[in-house]
Design brief:
The structure holds two protein chains of two kinds. Chain A is mostly helical. Chain A contains 15 helices and eight strands. In chain A, the strands form four sheets. A two-stranded antiparallel ribbon of chain A has the order 1-2. Chain B is mainly alpha-helical. Chain B is built from 13 helices and two strands, in the order ααααααααααααββα. In chain B, strands 1-2 form a two-stranded antiparallel ribbon. The chains are: A mainly alpha, B mainly alpha.
Chain lengths: ~525, ~325
């Protein structure tokens, strides 16, 4: 197998996995701050219980993001040393800023928050959580600045064949980064909203199926309590209906923002990476029509076997330009343009290895871009719609008794994750064959083929070893993470608020830790 | 300015590594002590909770060292990591296992579950310490790099005695450093045993790092770095004497100062080479030929001048918040 292919699989697997964990952290953090803030403000115990419960879920997930994030910091140098040398002058800076300005804050203040219960004053304790959650968002900004530079290089000049940073402000305010950042944050809110909604639904359903909560004649909930089970009191009902509603609102707002930012991002992409968007729309020929369903071999490089079964006239123009008449360039027109601008064969040289002189295929994998784009939008849209339906169904204070609906709500948690992953797979694979895509309107000559980016000295055997190792380790960790999350979620509030199980002894020594590993 | 900034950034990288080895040094050592010194599950929990609130922040020093090397010396970052491909992958695996072990161990109240994660914590800490030491040692002795900075030879050309020495150096130092840390941060049986370790075994555990430092000094040392070594040795000796007298704070300080000055001597002797090529001196990576442009270094200097003091401030505060000793009585039931 070709080293480029193995290195790409490794980067893809480790990064997509990392980004299954990260959006939940980014989205859940502010939700958690909101819960604890309500508790500090009102003293209402329901918010305290929500904070403790969601805090535990947050931590199990957070640590997995930290653990898999370590790989991200180093894998550019491991398998992509030529890339690192080429982009280092500009790409390393946001990475270092992320570590110095975001990771330190995130890890230190989260440690303070976890162990700070009863040790820090309430408001200060809340502030530590807000710092950690804010730093997660900040880290997303820096890493997206780095990624956006690969999509749309700005703020550099070409010196001795390599980009040299000339304007850090241009890099930090790259329009690609600003839209991608807002899109990602909105998508993360969608993930967290769906999670809160699904789990809230499950717990309310459990209370109903255990016969704790009943309905009155109008169908309104009459919360009850089960003295045999610690934590299953009336307040517990408030905990979960609040969780559900917060989640539904966050999901609807999140996906609304996703749509707005996604539209802006799409228009930018039609200009900055026209071939990526043409592939996403299976727009083989230049025109104005939007493809609803394309059949045939959509991965075909030549577009020869693609048939668009259903097309809506003018819509593609609207998506790309905001009007109904400007034609959008299709794949068949763009590829010859790329060949004229960037060559039709790879140069010869040691960094290209056996790939020297190979023909360059400018067509991104159309199956992945076309369907990735549609899965992203489809899953996001379904999740937003489901959240609105959920709000309506629970307007009388609890969920229907249907087990099917509960399962749907719980498995629906996965849809926003799928939308996020599909979006990133689309945007990364749509950039091929470039690792640093050329900027058609800005700096001249800065681009790098993926085929020129891998480590020349690293063997296929090493890459396969590490790929297999990471895949196996991540697989095992996924099982453990899901096991732990399911345990925490099933346990409900009682398992995370031990005072409910057994009230703290009044003679308790002052220096007993409120939390310990 | 153009010739000063790369030197400044060499110093910054050295500071980041020093911070990492000092802080995660005791984290890794605590992890290993959970395997070698703990006598009971309670001992292990006491040990783990001494680093509970701070270990993650300590590990960020490594990530920052990595990110800062990428930003300031891209060629160094690229050549070191790709040349040491398998050992770095092993390091990452160890750090991942360790991180989840810390967080997951207490999540299920079951002896076997805990045992598995505590063992993973110990082994992960050992492997991580060894790999970090080996990689740093090879950074000072050099690797077979060609003109482009790529490895010549197979995937195992790094397997030299210097790599082993460096690995043992960080493992040994971490064990010694953690023994004084545990003596300072705990009460009860762990404190007693850690104090004994810091007086009896720690001096032996420090021998490999002394060997590494002296070996490099003999090849590349200057008057200044020899002076650093002399003061470092005095600090270690002072730490040892304090340990035998059960002066826990002074013992911790002594071994800690030894590390800071020892690492300073290592980087000082290595300067201006950041990664020597064992094939040709002309292919060695230096502070000058591996660094980013003056503009990038200038930007990063502003960021670091603002960021690093802030980090020291709030990390210091978090140590202050959690300054109390952990005793067996302080450990609540698992939940």
């Amino acid at each position: 197998m070709d080293v480029v292919a193995i290195a790409r699989w490794q980067f893809g697997i480790t990064t997509v996995y990392h980004f299954l964990l990260v959006p939940l952290t980014i989205g859940l953090g502010p939700a958690l701050v909101f819960m604890q803030w309500r508790w500090v403000r009102t003293g209402d115990d329901r918010w305290y219980r929500m904070t403790r419960f969601w805090g535990k879920v947050y931590l199990v997930n957070f640590i997995m993001g930290v653990a898999t994030g370590i790989v991200q910091e180093f894998q550019f140098g491991l398998a992509w040393s030529e890339y690192s040398r080429f982009v280092g002058d500009v790409f390393g800076a946001p990475l270092a800023m992320e570590a110095l300005l975001a990771f330190f804050v995130e890890s230190t203040f989260l440690g303070l928050w976890i162990f700070g219960w009863q040790r820090l004053p309430k408001r200060l304790h809340l502030l530590t959580l807000a710092m950690a959650a804010g730093a997660s968002v900040l880290s997303a900004y820096f890493i997206i600045v780095a990624n956006s530079w690969m999509q749309h290089p700005v703020g550099v000049a070409l010196v001795h064949g390599r980009p040299r940073m000339t304007d850090v402000w241009a890099v930090l305010t790259n329009n690609t980064a600003l839209v991608a950042f807002s899109h990602t944050i909105a998508g993360s809110a969608g993930v967290a909203g769906g999670f809160l909604l699904g789990i809230g639904w499950y717990q309310l359903w459990k209370r109903r199926s255990l016969g704790i909560d009943e309905l009155d004649a109008d169908g309104r909930v009459v919360p009850g309590e089960d003295p045999a089970q610690p934590g299953r009191d009336r307040l517990d009902h408030r905990v979960w209906i609040n969780t559900l509603r917060v989640g539904a609102v966050v999901a609807i707002l999140g996906f609304g923002a996703v749509a707005v930012t996604g539209d802006a991002q799409g228009k930018l992409l039609f200009q900055q990476q026209p071939l990526k968007m043409a592939s996403a729309e299976a727009a083989c020929e230049t025109g104005t029509s939007f493809s609803v369903l394309a059949v045939g071999d959509v991965s075909s490089a030549s577009c020869a076997n693609v048939t668009n079964l259903i097309e809506i006239p003018f819509v593609l123009s609207f998506l790309a330009n905001g009007d109904f008449s400007t034609p959008v360039k299709g794949v068949n027109e763009l590829i010859p343009q790329y060949q004229r601008a960037y060559g039709s064969t790879l140069p010869t040289g040691s960094i290209y290895g056996s790939r020297s002189g190979a023909t360059i295929d400018y067509q991104p994998d159309m199956t992945v871009t076309y369907w990735g784009f549609r899965i992203m939008i489809g899953f996001g849209g379904i999740a937003a719609f489901a959240a609105a339906v959920a709000l309506w169904l629970t307007r009388k204070g609890t969920v229907p008794r249907s087990k099917r609906l509960m399962q749907l709500a719980v498995f629906g948690i996965l849809a926003p994750f799928g939308a996020n992953a599909a979006g990133w797979i689309f945007t990364e694979m749509g950039r091929q064959p470039f690792v640093v895509a050329p900027n058609p309107t800005g700096v001249d000559g800065v681009s790098l083929f993926t085929a020129a980016a891998v480590s020349p000295g690293v063997t296929a055997g090493e890459l396969i070893t590490s790929l297999a190792t990471f895949a196996a380790l991540y697989g095992v960790l996924l099982v453990v993470e899901v096991f732990l999350l399911v345990r925490v979620i099933r346990g409900g509030v009682a398992a995370v608020v031990p005072e409910l199980d057994a009230p703290p002894p009044t003679d308790r020594e002052d220096d007993v830790l409120a939390f310990a590993y | 300015m153009d010739s000063v900034l790369p030197v400044v950034w060499f110093v910054v990288i050295a500071v980041l590594w020093t911070g990492y080895l000092f802080l995660e040094g005791f984290d890794l050592g605590v992890g290993m002590h959970m395997l070698v010194s703990a006598r009971s599950e309670q001992d292990r929990r006491v040990m783990l909770n001494t680093i509970g609130p701070v270990w993650d922040g300590n590990e960020v020093w490594l990530l920052t060292a990595g990110g800062a090397t990428f930003a300031a010396f891209p060629s160094w970052y690229a050549s070191l990591l790709s040349t040491l491909y398998l050992p770095i992958v092993l390091l990452l695996v160890a750090l991942i296992v360790r991180a989840v072990a810390i967080e997951f161990a207490g999540k299920v109240d079951d002896r076997r579950w805990r045992r598995v994660w505590d063992t993973a914590m110990g082994l992960g800490s050992f492997v991580a310490a060894f790999c970090v030491g080996a990689a740093l040692s090879l950074t000072t002795t050099g690797l077979p790099l060609d003109a482009n900075g790529d490895r010549v030879g197979g995937p195992f050309v790094w397997a030299t005695w210097q790599a082993v020495l460096g690995g043992l150096a960080v493992v040994g130092f971490s064990l010694a450093h953690a023994s004084t840390y545990l003596a300072l941060k705990t009460d009860g049986p762990v404190r007693v045993r850690a104090g004994r370790f810091s007086a009896r075994i720690a001096p032996i555990a420090l021998l490999p790092i002394v060997g590494w430092v002296v070996e490099l000094q003999l090849r590349r040392g200057t008057a200044v770095t020899w002076l650093l070594v002399a003061v470092a040795a005095a600090a270690a000796a002072g730490g040892w004497v304090a340990a035998t007298r059960r002066h826990e704070g002074r013992a911790f300080l002594g071994y800690g100062v030894f590390l800071v000055l020892g690492v300073a001597a290592l980087f000082g002797a290595a300067f201006p080479l950041v990664l020597p090529s064992t094939l040709s001196a002309a292919w060695s990576l230096t502070v000058w030929n591996a660094s980013s442009s003056a503009y990038t270094l200038g930007v990063m200097s502003v960021v670091a001048a603002f960021g690093v003091p802030l980090v020291l401030l709030y990390q210091g505060w978090s140590y202050w918040v959690f300054r109390r000793r952990i005793s067996p009585a302080a450990i609540p039931a698992a939940h």
